[in-house]
Design goal:
Blueprint lengths: L18 H4 L7 E5 L2 E4 L15 E3 L47 H14 L4 E9 L2 E9 L2 H16 L5 H11 L8 H9 L9 H10 L6
Antiparallel strand pairs: 1-2, 2-3, 4-5
Helix pairs in contact: 3-4
Protein name: DIX domain-containing protein
InterPro entries: DUF7500
Pfam families: DUF7500
């Protein structure tokens, strides 16, 4: 065992080389060309005319930085981005839709309704939004019959005024309280009298008694 070898050293590390064995200057395939620089031949002995050395060994540290081909891990020159979304959105050539107008007021609504009703294929039509004691209700009607249109309008209005009272009674009260007097044609009066038990021999007093007992006269 060479001198200076630690007796407790691991035998698997191999034998320790002596300084003479580490000296490569005596090898015929090695030629020293400068202090600490050698030419190593891959074949036979190195000739003096060999101008291009097969390889050089330098005992000193190299001035060139270590190469990074064998680095494991991410390339520091590549920016890491954990966001799966693209950094920049592709350009969009389509024009943006115009922003909605904020000038929606009562006048614009009335104008739209006017155009809409004029475009309806009917002789008569209405579109109403009304407030009844805090409850807003809407009703729309299109028809070619003027009576049907009017009937739908007044019945809807009476129902909104009082839902617990019959429509005909509400309409009678509204017409009575209105400042516009209603004139009924004789045909309506005759039809109303036929609905009672009176005859031509009865008096006006009998008619009033009949109306009071029936709580009104339905025309």
């Amino acid at each position: 065992m060479p001198s200076g070898l630690d007796e407790d050293a691991d035998v698997e590390e191999g034998p320790v080389l002596s300084p003479e064995e580490l000296d490569i200057s005596n090898d015929e395939r090695v030629k020293e060309i400068d202090d600490g620089r050698y030419v190593v031949s891959s074949g036979g002995p190195v000739s003096n005319q060999q101008s291009e050395p097969a390889g050089e060994l330098e005992s000193g540290p190299s001035d060139s930085p270590a190469r990074d081909e064998y680095k494991t891990g991410p390339n520091p020159a590549i920016e890491q981005n954990d966001d799966p979304t693209p950094l920049e959105a592709p350009p969009n050539d389509e024009p943006e839709p115009p922003a909605p107008s904020d000038s929606l007021d009562a006048r614009s609504v009335h104008n739209w309704l006017s155009d809409d009703l004029q475009a309806a294929n009917s002789e008569y039509a209405f579109d109403i939004t009304a407030n009844f004691g805090g409850d807003v209700s809407q009703q729309r009607m299109v028809s070619n019959d003027v009576v049907t249109t009017f009937e739908t309008l007044v019945m809807w209005y009476a129902q909104q005024v009082d839902r617990n009272t019959p429509v005909e009674q509400v309409l009678g009260i509204l017409l009575m309280e209105a400042n516009v007097p209603v004139r009924y044609p004789p045909k309506a009066i005759r039809r109303a009298l036929k609905s009672t038990s009176l005859s031509a021999d009865d008096t006006i007093a009998d008619l009033m008694r009949e109306v009071k007992e029936n709580q009104g006269l339905q025309l």
